[in-house]
Design brief:
single chain; alpha/beta
Length: 167
């Protein structure tokens, strides 16, 4: 499978940083459907940095696989800060070797948006052992591909920020 050059380059930089800092990554992905982990594992040497990934597209998967509280899903909806943070923390807790986890949940489009939660809205969260979770709310322009690509690159940026805190 062909991974876009900028995704591959950013993934390689992240892997180098994580190796230097002794970090292991877990992913919890909804709107990207596993593409964050896919970009990472396309890089040689990723096995020393990537622990596991959860694709939790449905609310049932978010709840059952990574422990997102049903009350959070009911109250805030899947595309929310609260759920993104719970996804990251849940993935970190369930990943045997991970020292940090990234989670993304959003509306990639072209349908599914609303006035309150438009197409392109993505919540990203990064949890790390011993560090407060990072959260970013973004509204990306473009089609489904553009939203997902921007999310992947932002996720790598957040993981790099978290990895940099350990040293």
């Amino acid at each position: 499978m062909q991974i876009e050059p900028d995704i591959l380059a950013n993934a390689a930089k992240l892997i180098t940083l994580c190796k230097a800092n002794g970090e292991m990554i877990a992913t919890a992905e909804s709107c990207t459907g596993g593409l964050i982990a896919g970009g990472l594992t396309a890089v040689d040497g990723s096995s020393s940095v990537v622990d596991c990934g959860f694709v939790t597209y449905s609310n049932e998967a978010k709840h059952g696989l990574i422990g997102v509280a049903q009350e959070l899903l009911d109250k805030h909806g899947a595309v929310s800060e609260q759920v993104a943070i719970a996804m990251a923390e849940g993935a970190l807790a369930r990943a045997p070797l991970a020292t940090m986890a990234i989670a993304v949940t959003g509306i990639a489009g072209p349908g599914g948006g609303s006035e309150e939660k438009p197409v392109g809205l993505v919540h990203l969260a990064c949890a790390g052992n011993g560090h407060p979770a990072l959260h970013r709310r973004r509204i990306y322009d473009g089609d489904r591909h553009a939203v997902r690509k921007a999310t992947i690159l932002e996720a790598y940026d957040m993981l790099s920020e978290m990895a940099g805190k350990s040293k």
